[in-house]
Specification:
alpha+beta, Alpha-Beta Plaits, four-stranded antiparallel sheet, 34% strand, globular
């Protein structure tokens, strides 16, 4: 099992547009990711964030190789799509989670 966490940070001025994109396009894109075994798409609530909003996509892959392939192709494509639509108003943070111990 290999896990990738992708956080999308949206600035305040784009929240309404992001919500529409999330509901109408992002969910469909995620559903069509081929190598993703399971995923969780979440809104992040935290006291540390005072401006904008964070959305997280947690992806589970069969192997590190599948995760790497996804990062090089699907994530690259998704980042390009979001950059064209939102520019610098949505920032994407990729975090590879390397399992040490789990009870999943």
């Amino acid at each position: 099992m290999s896990i990738l966490s992708i956080t999308f940070h949206t600035v305040d001025s784009q929240l309404q547009t992001w919500e529409q994109y999330f509901e109408n396009e992002l969910i469909t894109l995620v559903e069509n990711f081929i190598d993703v075994e399971k995923y969780i798409l979440s809104e992040i609530n935290t006291e540390m964030l005072t401006e904008g909003k964070n959305t997280n996509l947690l992806l589970i892959f069969e192997s590190n190789e599948k995760r790497q392939e996804f990062t090089e192709t699907e994530l690259y494509n998704l980042s390009e799509i979001i950059a064209r639509k939102f520019g610098e108003n949505v920032m994407i943070f990729k975090t590879e989670l390397n399992e040490k111990k789990s009870r999943f």
